[in-house]
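Wed. Picked up where I left off yesterday with Metal-dependent hydrolase. The coffee machine is broken again, so keeping this brief.
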Amino acid sequence: MDSLTQLTLGAAVAVVALGKQPGSKVRVALTGAVLGTLPDLDVIIDYGDVVSNMVLHRTESHALFYQTLLSPLLAWLAALCCKQQQYYLRWLLASWLILLTHTGIDAMTVYGTQFGLPFTNTPFAVGSIFIIDPLYTLPLLIGVSWFLLSRLNRGYRANIAGLLLSSAYMLWSVLAQQHVSNIAAQNAQQQLGDYQRILVTPAPLNTLLWRIVIMTEQGYAEGFYSLLDETQQISFSLIQQDNTLKQQYATLKPVQQLQWFSRGFYALERQEDKLLLTDLRMGQQGSYAFQFVVDPLNRTAVTQLPMRRDSAVALPWLWQRMWGTPLPSPYTVVQLSH
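Structure written out below (tokens, as returned):
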């Protein structure tokens, strides 16, 4: 999840554990916020190339084993900072829970979180919530702010209510994803016949509109479904691909890395003497978050292309499509006839 969400969640968890103990409310919330954003500092590590930096984000710093080992030290520092050394055990529990909840909500996004290290490096990703979702973050932010600005007992209860509301919204996202997955699978079978795998993940900033990616023998298909659509018929755009390229360049390190990390939801196409390597899970056709230019002969380093940010086009489309208006994708693609 985004940094604001992580630091707010960290503050909220710290308030639950230490908010009623003597001491500065601001220090408790601020310390929890710092602990909540610590795991994401791994972004400063350079693993040698842009693809490695992507697939090795959310590794050791997000692993439950290492977080458990580190919690006693962080708890001691937190208690010292807040002048609450007598509540070290409470800070130990709070520090551990803050790190674990950070990893937990990251794992609910589609990116991939390797929380099983050092025992397994499987990138776990539920994909039921977008990396930024105001309806998850706002209850936390309101609860923590209420705690800081109001009388103790009332603010403490508001903070707990914020945590409960955010948790309920996260549960809702999983249920909504399962519902859309069933609809998407039926549509895929009817329109595409045999397919290899299917991905269902929310569009940005909401859990009403969902994006569906289906890998096929000919390439991949993309479709959108809103929970407010009047019909369960999904219009797919089919993007043709030469899948023999994946076999031809299967031994290239960047291709191997992304094939593993994306769980097969990637595209590979030739552009003159270079290859365009795309993670199909984040973004949409015409505007992907992770696209890399790869030299198959390793003469030049892998480079990452900037994401196309067409807010003037994308945001109005997102808003209307979210509420069930049957609009085509804002980017030109070939529609698959029913």
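Quick read: The chain has a mean pLDDT of 94.
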